[in-house]
Amino acid sequence: MMNQIKIGAFISERRKAKGWTQSQLAEKLEITDKAISKWETGRSMPDLSLFMPLCTLLDVTLNELFAGERIAEEKWKERADEVLMDVITNWLGHDNREKVHSRESKESDTTPENVLEVENVSKLYENVSTGHENVSTGHENVSTGHENVSTGHETENNSVLAVKDVSFQIPHGSFVGIMGASGSGKTTLLNLIATIDKPTNGTIRISGQNIVDIPDEATAEFRRRHLGFIFQEYNLLVTLTIYENIALALTIKEFSKESIRPMIQSLSEKLDISAILDKFPYEVSGGQRQRCACARAIVVNPDIILADEPTGALDSHAAKQLLDTLAMLCREYGATILMVTHDVMAASYCDRILFMKDGEIKAALNREQENKQTFFADILKKIEWMEGES
Known about the structure:
It is built from 16 helices and 13 strands. The protein is of the alpha/beta class. It folds into 2 domains: 4-92, lambda repressor-like DNA-binding domains (434 Repressor (Amino-terminal Domain), Orthogonal Bundle); 99-111 and 171-389, Rossmann fold, CATH 3.40.50.300.
């Protein structure tokens, strides 16, 4: 099993070999001194998004970091595979891929229709002031969420090409992830798909409809009718109970009062939130609030669910519960999910991963019939390859 104390001592040893203080290493990683101290004393592990930057700074391989020791060249292959799979299994647990894809075995050999088709999409922000999250598009100020788009492709006149010629398709019932560092364009792309912003060029089709042509005044209605959302911060109404938060989505879509209760009861049992339906969001845990958000998103049977860093505010146990829930929604309800994440563990639950950098999709990875552990390892290797390409 993973030895956090040994890994912490190894981080400390490599940091000192570089001649850095804890504060200097923290500054390079843009985190707090306290986080470094916790790592080195074995009280916590680095966030998954920090593994590759940390390895680069300490001049070690990912497998050496997990092993907590240098690995001799002649033993590298043998020890690398052993260490990596041990650590991954420790995090993710055992996974039966046959169960994950039980839905696929029942389906015919016909190719599912594409729910989402993104074709040659670009987004150019003009006259961007460096350092601001809100950028002028000429007619309104648009929030780009967690990203600062000034890290994209800069052009003349302080313009930024935040998304550059992106194309991909998502078939019905798929669970697709988009990975990338802050500023890579992933949240901007999600905003374009969500009709929160419009692309400068290209087409985006959801269930065959080109959403680029939808007038601004009609986008809110389109979102209500066709899209489901799961946000990092839940976005539940605190003055409504869990039941009322879910029911509100159905009420807006004009479901009858008589049909709403049995729908919510059935879904809440699947998501293990039936016991908290009468509680308010502030009375339940973060994981339960996020599962409520899942119920609200899926209950109206949207064409696609857009999830923006859904595990970002959860601890590791709650995050795993949520990811199991998302996988179940695809498997048992035929949901189509597009998830933006920087977390390798979250990404390992997906069927396919798109890797974004500098506004472009640089690589893609299909899970095929692999279990979570193997797919997790493949994602790490792809990230390492992309870092090497840089």
